[in-house]
Structures are given as structure tokens and as C-alpha cells.
Amino acid sequence: MGKKEEQLAELLGTLGDFTSKENWDKFFTIRGTDDAFEWYAEWSELRNPLLSHLPPQPQILVPGCGSSRLSEHLYDAGFNSITNIDFSKVAISDCLRRNVRHRPDMRWRVMDMTAMQFEDEAFDVVVDKGGLDALMEPELGPKLGTQYLSEVRRVLKSGGKFICLTLAESHVLALIFSKFRFGWKMGIHAIPQKPSSKPSLQAFMVIAEKQVSSVLQEITSSFNDSSLALKGSQACGLLEAVEKENRIRRDYSTGSDVLYSLEELQLGARGDLTELCPGHRFQLTLGGDSRFSYRAVVLDAQESSGPFAYHCGVFIVPKTRAHEWLFSSEEGQWMVVESSKAARLVMVLLDASHVSASMDDIQKYLSPLVKQLAPGKDDSGAQIPFMMASDGIKQRNIVHQVTSTITGPVIVEDVIYENVDGDISRILPSRDLTFRRLVFQRSEGLVQSEALLSEEGSNNKVVELDPVVLKLAKEYFSFVEEDRLQVHIADGIQFVRNVANSAAADEISAVQEKEGACCNTEPPSSNGSCLESHVEGKVPSKVDIVIIDVDSADSSSGMTCPAADFVQETFLQTVKDALSEKGLFIINLVSRSQAIKDSVISRMKVVFSHLFCLQLEEDVNEVIFGLCSASCIKEDSFPEAALQLEKLLKLEHPEISQSIINTTKKLRQLK
């Protein structure tokens, strides 16, 4: 081996950083003017597959040309409008001297391929032979490759082609596939290899054709596993990459609820972002750098929701509320859009990774990203407002935390609200009112129990099935068990079922007594409710009132209260069987979905003769009353009942009594 060959071998071994201009200048200086260096494949292998994809008389760009003779072969094949660029002045000077006489129309320019100095849509074809691979050294990341492909997209005309000769490594393909996903037709082909006793990596030709439409198309290929000359990891990686990308494209095409990137949207994944499309909704990821990444939903309001106060708005959902149906379901999100008065709403859902970030940091980071999602040209400089789902709490103090094997993490906290109910504030106007709350972490937006802290002490009664919650009730909410108020640690559904079974057994026993089968046996008595009538070790007979007020462990189901099992028709029938002839079933229904509420009420109508409801304007809660009696209570009898209730109420503060009376007037029958 001569001295020059030794120098070249040493240089190739130490090149390392293929993005270094100095390294390449040194390489081409040592190699010399007339000694061309070819990556991957010779012209004899490339000629037929490459020429078959070139249109007549194209304007061709060859970025990162180096000292390759590829463009010279293309010129000699009849393609004379070729521009070659490379950031190595040595390489461009050598190629220019080599071709200036024989190929006078060939153009050569010293230029960085990641920042080209050409007008938009200047070329019909961009032919890359190893240039992208050189930019995509794994340790350097995708930054330079991304910049380069953005330039390729920019300088190509509509209908133009990007022809990339590559070793098709997975990280290179992942970048090409993502950057040419929307509005491009893509194929990949294997370059024929010369017979050789030495194994070598196979070269491939990726072709991306710029389309007018942004419709997604699957990647086509001219090979399969058995037809590839090369076996092993390169072939497997290539086939897996193509199949993975085609799965992604199928998911997008079938309308699956996938997460777009901001860049994909700007490339036309959902059409023209500057145009409002009433009723359209899509999800995306904002950011994605080492600091922050945000999951967001973009919703364009229906025209009927207007007039709009903002052309675009941002609604931030804190981590503690992101799982709630209102923010996690499509139906709930449209309700937020309507109340926001924004023509386009960008809903950003925070997660655990954002806990340490302040709202100022979050807004500062999101502002430039959100501006790219705003409809219209925004020449007016209109501000994009940031809104947030608040819990209305001015001050919070965690009193106690514990984890239950049944309920999970449980929090006892004292809070001061920003605004307090008018009746309470009139009674105690001189100070901030502190409320003690019981909250399950699985559904932090739902308060399980709440009591106003009193300096005088209180006699609050909290009943739960979880023994941990019962312990908390006694220690932190002054709960006291009495003769007529007992707590049973049991499964609620099974408890009601036992009551119903016991009542049925009592009825059979009563019939047997009447028929003489049994005698001198006193029937069991009921003293008013399933809790009050329970004697230790004995299931009560029929009860007069059953109240269901239990949260759902699945806060994303659309029904916060009760758990779904408590409104199944089979359980509702069990409740009716447990109730006395004039028994009353009361259920606290919490859902923002009208469809879910209608479904629950429909099931209750099948079981109970008459239904009534109480809906307070400021609350999501709706209390449903089911009557067993065939004879219905008439609504015109409510005023008289309210007067009787007023006489029974002997509260210290008349404002509270009046509030209760006013509430009874809001009862209405469900027809």
C-alpha cells in the first residue's frame, strides 16, 4: 500500500464526525482531483433503477455531492440541468476543474445542504447519495437531518421527487418516513448488487414524490423478505421499519384517535390549520424537547356556539383533574369549548412531568407553539388567552394522608374557598370559613365528605364501608356512632341483596304461619331504615329508605357517582325488593353527560313506579328519588309538605332553614 492509500485509510478510520467540514476538506485534499469517491453503489448498479424514476428534462439538485461522479453520469445520460452543492470548498473546486470543459452546463456551488440558498420550489428532482446518512450519525441525533429534509421539501416543486440512496438504517428511515408522511407518495427499492464473495451492506433507493393532496398513502416496496439479497439484521430492520410505518399510516387513514406532532399538522395532516373547521377535533403533542412535552386537544367550535369572544384560546387542565370525564372524554371537551367562547380551543392536559413547572413557565413555553395553531393569519396581533380549570380553592392544608387497601390513597384536608355559599357567608360573615374535606386520590375532583369546621365542635356523621375511612371520620370529622346510627363494614350491593333475601324469607315465613306451618313466632320488626333496623349479627327485614351516595373508581367513565354497578337494572330490582310498600330509593347521580343520565333514569323507570329529581343550578349533582308505591305523590302537594318540614326544622340559623325549604320547591317529577 502506497503512502497516499495509507493516508486515506487512516483518514477514513478517523473521520468519525461525518458532519465536519474540516474533516472532509482534508479527506478530499489527500484523495486528489481525479480520484472520485463513491458511496454504496457504482453507476452500473444505479443506472437503470435511477433513470427509470427521472422525468424528462428535469432541474436536478445533488446535495452533498463530494467527489462522486454520479452527476457526471447523469449529465452524460442526457440530463444537463444539474446543480451540485457541498460544504467542502476542496470537493467543489476539484469537481469544477474536472468538468468545466466537458460538461459546461453543470453548476457547482459551495453550500451547506442544511441551509440552502435557493428559492422555494426550484427543482424537479433532488438526488441524495449518502448525504442524509452522513448527517444522521446516531450520537449526533436527528437535528441536522431534520433541517436538511425540511430544505428538500422546500426546494422541490409540486410533483417533484426526492431520491435518496441510503443504507436504510432504522433511525434514518424513521426520520424520512415521518417527514414525508403527509402529501407524499413514497416507495423503497433495493439496489442490485454485484456478485461478491465478501458480505456487504445493501443500498436502497427511497423515492418520495410531492403530491398536491395530503391524503396518506402506504409505502410501496419492490422487495420482500425472500427477495432481498442481504439477510440478517439489515433486512429485518428494514422490513420492520416499513411495516411499522404502514401501520401508523393505516391508523391515521382510518381515523384512529392518534397523537399528531405540530410539524405533521403543519405539513397538512389535518388540512389547512389556518382555516376553522367547525366540529373538528384532533389530538397532538406539543413540544417534545428535554424539558417539556404536552398532550393537547384542538377543537373547532360549532358555528351555533357563537358569537365568539376569542379566535383562539388555551385551556389548561391541571394533573389532578385531567382524568375527569369533563376533560378526558370528547363529549365533555365539547362542553368546555362551548363555555370558553373561543372559536378554536387548544386544551392542554398536564401530567406528573409538569408538577415542578410553574404556570408562568408553562405559559411561556406554550405561547409560541399555540400561535402556530391559531386560525387565520392573525395579522391583528390578537392575544390568545390562557384559561385554567380551577378548583376554586384559595388555601389548602393537608391534615392527614393514609392509604387504604380498598380505596387507595385518602386525604383529609382543610380548605378555604374563594367563594362560599351565600347562606353560610351571611351567618358567619366576619372570617374566612374553613371546610374539612375527605378526598380519594383516585378521583381528586370529587369531594367525598365536607363539613364546616366550628370552634364549638360539631356532631357530623360520615358513614363509609371502608374501615380506613370510618377511622378517619371518627378522628377528623367528629363522627359518633349511636343506637340508631350504626356502621357496617361490608359490600354495599351484597348488603342490600341480603336485606332483600331476608325480606323474602320473612314473607315466606309469614305465609307459612298463616297457613299453620309455624305458630307463636313474632315477625321481625323494622324501625325505619336499613341502618337503623340492623341488629348485630342479623340482617334487617324490609326498609323504608335506601340511599346510594358512592363514588366511582373510574372517573373517566363519564359518571362520577355512583359506581356503574349501583345503577344496573338487576341491582335496582334488588333495591325495590328490599324496600317496604311505600319505600323510597334515593341516589346521588353525578354526570355531565346527558346521554349517561338519560340511560340511568331510563333503567330506574323500568323498576320504580314514579321518579322525582332535584337539580341545583350550580351543581352537577342530580338527586333522583324512586317511589315503590303505585300511587304517585302529586306535585301540588309539595308546598304543604314544605310547610310541615319548616315546622319540624328547629335550626339555630333561620337562613339555613329557609335554604332547605327553598330547595324542596325545586323538586320535579320525571314523566
Topology:
Layout: H1 3-14, H2 21-31, H3 43-51, E1 60-63, H4 70-76, E2 82-86, H5 89-99, E3 107-110, E4 123-129, H6 131-135, H7 143-155, E5 156-166, H8 170-179, E6 184-190, E7 204-210, E8 220-221, H9 233-253, E9 259-261, H10 262-266, E10 281-287, E11 293-300, E12 313-317, H11 325-328, H12 330-340, E13 344-349, H13 359-371, E14 386-388, E15 393-404, E16 408-417, H14 422-427, E17 434-440, E18 447-452, H15 467-476, H16 492-514, E19 543-548, H17 569-578, E20 579-590, H18 594-607, E21 610-615, E22 621-627, H19 638-648, H20 654-664, E23 667-670
Parallel strand pairs: 1-2, 1-4, 2-3, 4-5, 6-8, 9-10, 12-13, 12-14, 19-20
Antiparallel strand pairs: 5-7, 6-7, 10-11, 11-13, 15-16, 16-17, 17-18, 20-22, 21-22, 21-23
Helix pairs in contact: 1-2, 7-8, 8-9, 16-17, 17-18, 19-20
Polypeptide structure, described:
It comes from Prunus dulcis (Almond). This protein is of the alpha/beta class and 671 residues long. It is built from 20 helices and 23 strands. Strands 3-2-1-4-5-7-6-8 form an 8-stranded mixed sheet. The protein has a 6-stranded mixed sheet with strand order 9-10-11-13-12-14. A 5-stranded mixed sheet has the order 19-20-22-21-23. Strand 21 (610-615) and strand 22 form a beta hairpin. The termini are far apart. Mean pLDDT is 80; it is low at 456-463 and 517-538.
